[in-house]
Design a protein that fits this description.
With about 575 residues, the chain is an alpha/beta fold. It has helices at about 90-100, 120-130, 150-160, 180-190, 205-215, 225, 230-245, 260-270, 280-285, 295-300, 315-325, 340-345, 365-370, 380-395, 480, 485-490; strands at about 20, 25, 30-35, 35-40, 45-50, 60, 65-70, 70-75, 105-110, 135-140, 165-170, 195-200, 250-255, 275-280, 410-420, 440-450, 455, 460, 525, 530. A 7-stranded mixed beta sheet has the order 3-2-7-15-16-17-18. The chain has a 7-stranded parallel beta sheet with strand order 8-9-10-11-12-13-14. α4 packs across α7 (about 230-245) and α7 (about 230-245) packs parallel to α8. The longest helix has 17 residues, at about 230-245. The chain starts with 18 loop residues before the first strand and ends in a 46-residue tail after the last strand.
Length: about 575
């Protein structure tokens, strides 16, 4: 009896990783075009019609669908050691959720408390990620303290470790927050290295004071989180970050732009010529801060993040308008998930609720629904804000974010007509709550290709833990630094050439360097009866010294004084009725 033939799963049943995506409409950020895509060895080899392909090539039918570059989520937290409890979505679960939603690359933030070596934090993060990721990833680096050692390690991270972005925090006092002088040093160093400065923009001093005040008033629930971080607190810090970056002549990337105020500050700065980019996230584009005032504590706490969602329900639409018109440039998620029992660490004190929400799985569909389906942007702009612009900013374009010969085969067959309903019951996150619960969205990824492998199709997900690769992000991205050199030259301070002054110069009575600073002493009374005060702290004569006094004998006491009667003194007569 012969043994049954072992069936090889369809997603890997192709010779040497050969794949043909046939019949779809390709969409890049600049144009749409009809073409078949032949993939081999993880990269796009050919584009066109009626391609001649080798035998054994798997064919994916994309007729009637769009083929778009795989999404790039610019902002995730799949490890966050500064929290008191670990995030629910680690590098495996987070990248699994990403692929399910059509995202084929994430950019995670390396975070450690002040005092921890950035290189040490980087190595630890790489070790965790390399063993777990299901898709490609890049890294940003948090700078939570400043020293000469940090400056030297920034050099190594850029030149040897594939990092070109450094984030500072204006919030989380005592944990991550830097003061303005250190922020300026980080920005200056980033500029020197041709890298990108990133900023979390909230005023940490105000937040700490207002949070304590609200708690003392008896406000302990999640609404206190929103009330302690009003919109102007985000706007002020955004303006301050832009000013500091401009003084360092360093390009700036503002993460999670959550409010109209912060967005307007960025728009105004860009109109003035500042090199600054704004990143709204899926959460603020898809929902709002009215959820913090929900009667259910579990529901309200699940939305706690920093900066918070804004209670103004028109904010998501406003931010989407700016995104559609390139006033804001890219989208991330700030994906940092916790289960309800973890959020419950702050059940009696909103200050202790772990900050973070989901988004990496639903970002693409939420933006399609709120942006494209609503008529605010076209498919090309959708590609720009979900992948291409991010690839340009972080200097990995056209390797990523582009459909072209030689580009990585990270692609999504996208059905713009299909719908799905978002729910925690069906999502691939490791958390038990979804902030988009019940939202019906158009735009569904039906096939996802990552590194030339079909990782999602009609049969489900086909993932291999650890199969993703680290993607270095080189410095001096042309999209970011292309106009910086000329801008620096145009704005450089100019010395005024003039003849030297040869006129008189006043001589100071007391030279500053000869002044002896002394402690003040009490006044003394000399033999002449005059009170003498000591010199000032600067050594000068005390201008309060005087020989005038009302006490003791006066020089004219022995002289006879003529008397006179004043009938009408100032203010009226001294007699009469009042």
């Amino acid at each position: 009896m012969s043994r049954p033939v072992k069936k090889v799963p369809l997603h890997i049943n192709s010779s040497q990783g050969r794949l043909l995506i046939k019949g779809g409409k390709c969409v890049n950020d600049d144009r749409e075009f009809s073409a078949d895509i032949y993939i081999e060895g993880g990269v796009i080899k050919e584009l066109g019609q009626n391609l001649i392909i080798p035998g054994g090539t798997r064919v994916v039918d994309a007729k009637g669908k769009l083929v778009i570059p795989g999404g790039i989520d610019t902002h995730t937290h799949l490890q966050k050691p500064v929290e008191v409890t670990p995030v629910a979505d680690d590098f495996y679960h987070g990248t699994k959720a990403a692929i399910s939603g059509g995202t084929t690359m994430i950019m995670d933030l390396v975070m450690e408390k002040a005092g921890v070596s950035p290189l040490e934090a980087y190595d630890k993060c790489r070790e965790l990620a390399d063993a777990m990721v299901c898709c490609d990833y890049g890294l940003h680096m948090t700078i939570s303290g400043w020293s000469e050692q940090v400056a030297q390690e920034m050099d190594l991270l850029v030149k040897e470790k594939g990092i070109n972005s450094f984030e500072v925090f204006h919030a989380y006092k005592g944990v991550l927050m830097l003061d303005d002088s250190d922020v300026l040093k980080v920005f200056s160093k980033a500029k020197e290295l041709g890298s990108l400065a990133m900023a979390h923009c909230e005023n940490g001093e105000i937040i700490e004071q207002k949070a304590d005040e609200l708690f003392d008033l008896g406000i302990t629930g999640p609404e206190g989180h929103a009330l302690s971080r009003p919109e102007e607190v985000e706007g002020e810090a955004t303006y301050r970050a832009i000013v500091l970056a401009n003084q360092a002549r360093c390009p700036l990337y503002v993460v999670h732009v959550m409010s109209k105020t912060a967005a307007n500050v960025i728009c105004e700065a860009r109109r003035k010529g500042h090199v600054v980019f704004g990143e709204p996230i899926a959460a603020c584009l898809g929902t709002d801060g009215t959820n913090y005032f929900h009667k259910c504590w579990r529901h309200a706490a699940a939305h706690v993040m920093g900066p918070p969602l804004r209670p103004d329900p028109s904010t998501p639409g406003y931010l989407m308008d700016l995104l559609a018109n390139d006033d804001l440039q890219v989208t991330g998620t700030d994906n940092c998930t916790f289960n309800v029992d973890q959020k419950a660490l702050g059940k009696d004190d909103f200050r202790k609720i772990p900050n973070g929400v989901n988004g990496v799985e639903d970002r693409m569909s939420v933006i399609w629904e709120k942006g494209v389906q609503s008529g605010k942007m076209d498919a090309c702009r959708f590609v720009a804000v979900t992948s291409s612009t991010a690839a340009k900013i972080f200097n990995i374009y056209p390797k990523k974010g582009h459909i072209g010969v030689g580009s990585d085969a990270d692609l999504v067959v996208w059905d713009p007509e299909a719908t799905r309903t978002i729910s925690a019951k069906t999502h691939n996150h490791a958390c038990d709550f979804n902030i988009f619960e019940g939202m019906e969205v158009h735009g569904v990824p039906v096939v996802v290709v990552s590194g030339g492998r079909v990782v999602k199709d009609e049969e489900g997900l086909h993932l291999t833990q650890g199969s993703g690769q680290f993607v270095p992000t080189p410095p001096n991205a042309p999209y970011v630094y292309g106009r910086v050199a000329l801008r620096d030259q145009a704005l450089a301070p100019q010395k005024v050439d003039r003849e030297a002054y040869d006129g008189p110069v006043i001589e100071l009575a007391t030279k500053v360097e000869e002044v002896t600073v002394c402690e003040s002493a009490p006044p003394s009374v000399a033999n002449d009866g005059i009170i003498h005060r000591p010199p000032t702290r600067g050594g000068g004569r005390n201008m309060q010294e005087s020989s005038f006094s009302f006490s003791g004998d006066q020089f004219d006491d022995s002289k006879q004084r003529n008397s006179s009667r004043v009938s009408n003194p100032p203010g009226g007569k001294s007699q009469g009725l009042w």
